Amino acid sequence: MSRILKFILAANLIVLAVLVFVYPNLMVGPGKLIPGHKQLETDCFACHFPLTGADSARCVVCHKKADIGVLGTTGQPIAKPLTTTPFHQKLLNQDCVACHSDHAGVKRFRSQGHFKHELLEAKTRAECQSCHKSPKDSLHQQITGNCSQCHSQEKWLPATFDHNKYFELDRDHNTRCVTCHLVNDFSRYTCYGCHEHTLDNIRRKHVKEGIRKFDDCVECHRNADEDDIRGEGGDRKHGDRD
Amino acid sequence: MTTSLWRQHILPFAVILGLLAAVTVAGDFVLHRLGLVWVGRYLGIPGTILIIGSLIYSLRKRKFITSGNPKTLLQLHEFTAWLGSSMVLIHAGIHFNAILPWLATIAMGVNVVSGMVGKMLLDRSRRHVQGQREHYNLRGLSRPEVEQAVFWNAVTLDAMTKWRKVHIPIFIVFSVLAVGHIISVFLFWGWI
Question: What is the interface size between A and B, counted as CB pairs within 8 Å?
Answer without folding.
Answer: 69
